[in-house]
Amino acid sequence: MTNRVRLFFFLCLWIGLASVALADDKERTSVGHSITIGPGEQVSEATCFGCSIRVRGHVMGDATTFGGSISVEDQGQIGGDATTLGGNLRLDKEGKVSGDVTVLGGRIHRDPAATVGGDVTTFGGPGWIVLILAIPVVLVGLFVALIFWIVRRLLRRSAPTTA
After folding, report:
1. N or C: lower Cβ tally within 10 Å for the chain?
2. For 67-105, what is each residue's pLDDT tens digit?
3. Closest to 82 in 3D by CA, of 100, 58, 95
4. CA distance 155 to 80
5. Using an 8 Å Cβ cutoff, are 46 and 28 in contact?
6. In sequence order, what are the residues at sequence separation of 6 or more whose Cβ sits closer than 8 angstroms to the Cβ of residue 28?
7. How far apart, in whole angstroms, are the C-alpha atoms of residue 29 and residue 159?
8. pTM, two decimal places
9. What does R_g of the chain's alpha carbons equal in angstroms?
């Protein structure tokens, strides 16, 4: 092995170890596997793709799900915002969200004794998800159709005509 290869290998190893050492081990991110924050447990953020978050402890920042639900049980707390896209949010009796609550394409089940420090916004039902996903697709489709129409019109004009 040459010195350059060794140096490159050493730098890659050092950068990899430094990034692992600086990573926030209190942050929870998951794809396809639900996250549970137990009583007495504290995490900085919780993000879930295609799964749900169950909070019985304390999330200091935001809790966000895409295609899953958020459940704040017992004396669970979310210090930031609770946002779910395509799922429900359930706040039990002593559950607390210090920030905003946003539910898109789902429902909010909130005990009257639960606390929300910010705004509560809900766009219930699956129709909102279809609408939000369909509008960009339709706009891109219209844009592509416009480009094809312009190109075809320009090609028609430049084609020689025979009489």
Report:
1. C
2. 889 999 988 999 999 999 888 999 998 899 999 999 988
3. 100
4. 56
5. yes
6. 35, 37, 43, 45, 46, 47
7. 57
8. 0.64
9. 25
